[in-house]
Specification:
Strand order of the largest sheet: 2-3-1-4-5
Main location: cytoplasm
Distance between the termini: 12 Å
Pathway: Cofactor biosynthesis; coenzyme A biosynthesis; CoA from (R)-pantothenate: step 5/5
Order of helices and strands: EHEHHHHEEHHHEH
GO cellular component, one term: cytoplasm
CATH topology of the largest domain: Rossmann fold
Shape: globular
Family: Belongs to the CoaE family.
Radius of gyration: 18 Å
Organism: Alistipes putredinis DSM 17216
Number of helices: 9
CATH architecture of the largest domain: 3-Layer(aba) Sandwich
CATH superfamily of the largest domain: P-loop containing nucleotide triphosphate hydrolases
Length: 200
């Protein structure tokens, strides 16, 4: 079974690409959603987070995301500390999840920060999803109700698309849905063929 990491900047359309792979029958692990779940449900991770950021982040038994965000997003060192606790738990969960996907030719790991977090070592192939900057801004403004200036600031702190393309095994340009569907179907076949050749 091949493990495929899909990444891309805000508004690039990672989730659209992952839905298309899921429609082809590929199991998809959304690392952002699973990280949120683990921060609520994983006992050892909760204890480590409470020890590092204060018991009050779990006051009332549930994670106070707003309080935690206020502590980490204005301080790069605190954000790094959070990631250092959460990412290993997510990747352990991903590995367990992969073990339950028997019969799949390949699985997909969706991660906005695949390269920044060093998660590419957990996968066999990487796909970068890109789109023109004006398209990304328009999509994100529409989706999040954010201003164009806010979106530009968020884009500015992410890995730039040239670097994403350079580091990824494949690049999907997400402008036209019909073309994107064609490219995903092509990659789906390529990955299935590669896995079968490898398994033979």
């Amino acid at each position: 079974m091949i493990k495929v990491g899909i990444t891309g900047g805000i508004g690039s359309g990672k989730s659209t690409v992952c839905r298309l792979f899921a429609a082809c029958g590929a199991p998809v692990y959304d690392s952002d959603t699973q990280a949120k779940r683990l921060m609520e449900e994983d006992g050892p991770l909760r204890r480590r987070l409470a020890a590092r950021f204060g018991e009050e982040i779990y006051a009332g038994g549930r994670l106070n995301r707003k309080l935690l965000a206020g502590r980490v997003f204005s301080d790069p060192a605190e954000l790094s500390a959070l990631n250092a606790l959460v990412h290993p738990a997510v990747m352990e969960d991903f590995e367990r999840w992969c073990g339950r996907q028997s019969g799949a030719d390949y699985v997909v790991l969706e991660s906005a920060i695949l390269f920044e977090a060093g998660l590419e070592g957990y996968v066999d192939r990487t796909i970068a999803v890109t789109a023109p900057i004006d398209v990304r801004i328009a999509r994100t403004c529409l989706r999040d109700g954010a201003s164009a200036e806010e979106v530009r600031r968020r884009i500015a702190v992410q890995l730039d698309e040239e670097e994403l393309r350079r580091r990824a095994d494949y690049t999907l340009v997400n402008i036209n849905l019909g073309e994107l569907e064609y490219e995903v179907a092509r990659l789906d076949k390529l990955l299935r063929d590669e896995n079968r050749k490898h398994s033979a």
